[in-house]
Specification:
The chain has 8 helices and 7 strands. The protein has 353 residues and is α/β, with parallel strands linked by helices. A 7-stranded mixed β-sheet has the order 3-2-1-4-5-7-6, with helices on both faces.
Length: 353
């Protein structure tokens, strides 16, 4: 129970927090209006983050995706859902104030077509927030390949793609951080020094090192971008989503293990009963086989006796035949032949009278 939850939560944490913090980052650039949220994955509740700052959100999923695209339950009323064969985007009733596409373009064969489509449906002065894995840190450095990613890009390629379509652009690095936080008496987070350390090398002194980030996220537009500052941004999950999910997962895991154990015990008991039944059946068959063997021996003995008796009878029959032939060929038998015929005829006459 020690290894599986760690592996599970590490993978889940990175995927979940990449999306949650990505949408929270995009929310900073939404000031009402209509927002288009483009995604390839299933419809997670994270779209509610955009809905909290927008008048209306159109959530668009890839019609060719094999993943679950059913709307989540209990969603905000200002969210609607559509499907489209990406990279093609449907014609809107009116241009969108903002378009968000997090972790989408790397899954398309022609990501540049989606960027062109976004510009077509985006209002003049609108904002486009887009993120994608950095091919170097996300894939090459980790020797990792996501089979769903067909068009991963290096940072320079990502920049060139956006600069070819938008006049203004700002790129940030996006990543996941783990550690602890120490607050002063005011219990507020503002600016603070940051240190990094390696648990695997406790003898090393902590210090300031470049943080590892696996994604690029960009804010684009044809007008001046809102002044959010170029400083780094730390987004904290105040609801401790991963910890809560971990506890739920561990409870589910314990229940699953208990169910597996119960099933195993039931199967073991059924197997033992089956073995006992087969043992009894085997004993019965063995006893029956012994009885049949004895009966076979008795029949073979009786057959042998009958064959011996048959042989004796055949021998006697042969002897009598020889005696009869000898009598018929004897002189006395031939002399008394007429007398025997006379007596036979006389007997026939008496029966007639």
């Amino acid at each position: 129970m020690s290894s599986n939850p760690v592996s599970y939560n590490k993978e889940r944490a990175e995927k979940l927090y990449n999306r949650l913090t990505g949408y929270r980052f995009a929310q900073r650039y939404i000031q009402g209006g209509t927002v288009l949220d483009i995604r390839c994955a299933r419809l997670d509740p994270d779209v509610s983050i955009l809905a909290a700052a927008a008048e209306r959100v159109v959530c668009l999923t890839d019609a060719g995706s094999t993943r679950d695209c059913s709307p989540p339950r209990n969603q905000a009323e200002n969210i609607s859902y559509q499907h489209s064969a990406l990279p093609r985007l449907p014609d809107p009733d009116e241009p969108f104030d903002a378009v968000v596409a997090l972790e989408v373009i790397e899954k398309l064969d022609q990501p540049e077509r989606l960027v062109t489509e976004v510009k077509r449906v985006l209002k003049r002065g609108g904002i486009f927030v887009v993120s994608t894995p950095d091919k170097q840190t996300h894939t090459n450095d980790r020797n990792y390949k996501d089979p769903a990613h067909t068009s991963e890009m290096h940072t320079l390629q990502f920049r060139e793609l956006l600069e070819a379509n938008f006049e203004h652009m700002r790129i940030y690095r996006q990543g996941i951080v783990c550690g602890g936080i120490f607050l002063g008496s005011d219990n507020l987070v503002s600016s603070m020094p940051t240190e990094t350390f390696k648990i695997s090398e406790p003898e090393n002194r902590s210090g300031s090192y470049p943080l590892t980030t696996h994604f690029n996220i960009a804010v684009c537009g044809d007008s001046e971008l809102p002044d959010m500052g170029d400083e780094s941004l730390l987004l904290l999950d105040d609801e401790r989503t991963i910890f809560e999910e971990c506890e739920e997962y561990l409870v589910s895991l314990d229940l699953l293990r208990e169910e597996i154990k119960r099933i195993e015990n039931t199967e073991v008991q059924a197997f033992r009963e089956r073995v006992q039944s087969m043992h009894r059946q085997n004993t019965y068959l063995k006893s029956t086989n012994e009885d049949l063997g004895k009966e076979k021996e008795a029949l073979l003995s009786e057959k042998k006796a009958l064959l011996s008796e048959k042989k004796t009878l055949l021998s006697k029959n042969e002897w009598l035949t020889d005696r009869l032939d000898a009598m018929e060929n004897a002189l006395t038998w031939r002399i008394f032949g007429p007398l025997r015929r006379l007596r036979a005829n006389r007997g026939s006459s008496e029966k007639t009278d």
